[in-house]
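Section: Multi-chain targets

For targets with more than one molecule, the full set of components is provided together so that the structure can be written out for the assembly as a whole rather than chain by chain. Components appear in the order listed by the source. The example entry contains two components.
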Amino acid sequence: MQLEQLLHQRPDLWRGRAGERSAPAGPSTGFAALDRALPWHGWPPASLSEILSTHQGAALALALPMLAAASRRSRWLVLVDPPCVPFAPALAARGLDLSRLLIVRAGADTAWAMEQALRSSACAVVLGWQGPEQEKRRQWPAGSLRRLQLAAAAGDALAILLRAPGAAAQPSPAALRLQVEAAGDAIDVTLLKQRGGRPGARIRVGSGLSPTGCSRSPG
Amino acid sequence: MDWLALHLPALSLEVHERGLAHPPPLAIAEHERLIACNGPARQWGVHPGLAQSAGRALLADLRILPRNVRAERAALERLAAWAMRFSDQVSLAPPRGLVLESARSLRLFGGAEALHALVGDGVRGLGYQVRCVLAPTPAGALVLAAAGADGPVPDLAALRPALGALPVAALGFERQAQGDLARMGLKRVADLLRLPRAGFAERFGIERLHQLERLLGERADPRRPFSPPERFRALLELPAEVPDAAALVFAGRRLIDELYGFLLARQAGVQHLGWTLSHADRAPTRFRLGAARPQRDPGRWLELLRERLERLRLPAPVRAISLASETLRPLAPADGELFPDHAAATEPDPALLDRLRARLGHAAVQGLALVRDHRPERAWRWCEGGQAARRGHEHDRAPGSVRADWPLWLLPAPVALPQRGNRPWLDGPLALGETCERIDTGWWDDAPVARDYYVATAASGERLWIYRDMHGGRGWFLHGIFGVAEEDPAANAVTGDFDQR
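Its structure, encoded as tokens over all components, is:
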């Protein structure tokens, strides 16, 4: 950061990738290493992001610090078609205020429900998973991705789509695409695409889970 | 100009026709004769006065429906209820008229021209043709509107010549009396008004004289005020069966617009609407639309209806659509405000919730709450979205239900894992963590558990929550999926820019 400041003091210095600095700041991911690698120093605000992974645990964990921070503000978090029920005790333990959370089971209408929530301006973050229908086809039509991007901009909300890694082959209007793999108690994040930044970086975030002793519950 | 009369010249046709955006050629018959026909029928030369058979000869697929006096009366009453937003005294003038006491409305709505335009456009927006006349007497206004006039008559001095120019038939005397008048060479109302009053009463009855006097404002003309029903209820019959649910949106909009006027006049909203779609020979399709709070915004109700109709599978074509409101609820005048304050923001946006639930069903949108229980599957429950917030979540943050060492995902039911050499297996051997958590509880109810939970790492790198059942077969089960631990406590202090709006 100090180097950044020094460079800023030198107006005679021309720097490449100047657009990167002008990217609006977004909500922090909660992982310092990842924030540093992103032009928004966090999630791209009012945009669509994609997390590609087969590891549902790692994918949700990556979004969780941001969700927890958002839940302490005035708007809503909406999860559309999660593959199973997010476990409330663990979410609460990470600081997520459950009273701000809505879970929507939309079946074949995942994209529609996400768009409604995004456009309503009542939601800070809308996470959507490939519903069973889209899972079969293994892709979202490009048109519905574009609609999500527009809805996120209109409602000033984060849209995050959790998809299978195979989706990497399909072009997407998303501002950010991450591939996520679990690596024991860490997460490996590969930046597949970031608008206004360089793709390709691979970042390891997270650290060890503090082991718990064998505890016996009362009863 | 104390009275505003509305005349609905095509009411007998419109009670059938206005539910369709593109009605087929249609005629209404009474006593074997056509009394009204719509535009598409006129194009084929069909016109009122024809015998039914002559109409069919001109156009084989002309739909001829019998006049439905009951539907006309119901439509007139609904219009009266709708019109109460313009005046607190509305009277029916069957079969096709309404009259509003408008002295005060003139001031409220900005003069005769403005009121005339507002009422006329409003009624036309509901799917009716209408002529409106403002006049100093109710009877005069009604007769002028029925005779084809449209516009204001400023005072009694102007009313007399306006009425005088009408043919005698406009007064609606019986056939016998009309014949007598014609034989006497009295063709216009002006001719009647010139007759000596005493002689007129003797020849045609005192009641006719009183009628003339009421027209001119020389005799009191009390009108019974219409009192609106407690709830809104409307039936719209469709002239042709509609096979497609989406095409019913047009008819639904007509009813919702009427409902809006009804609610506006009462400063009320409704929270639930009951819809009934009638079929030819099977039980009707019924559904209910609900809103999170009382509503009257027609746009929002229409949106909810459209969502529902898009997903509705009709068992048969629809013949009629009806709407019944449930209990009216008072609505603050500041209806339609978006997020007025922070208190509202602690509940989910009702419009969003309503929209999602209208399409996906009520149970498809829920929140999560914690429960004090050591059994993972009982440590949480579904709740109404936003309810935890209202009760205050301190209660739910009870110790024992917030667990940092539990996984982010809990499977809906434990999945039995295969074993190889006494070790659990999932696409490869699972490496068990060193520590375990024993959960042995629930002996007092119907679902006791005794389990040793382990964190296991799969070959893929994923960390899983598995347990060994200590009760029965000592088998291994997969119960949850971990994410990753938070980087450090600072993650709790993440500052995002969520409030930039």
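Strands of chain A lie at 48-52, 76-80, 85-86, 101-104, 123-129, 158-163, 176-183, 186-194, 202-205.
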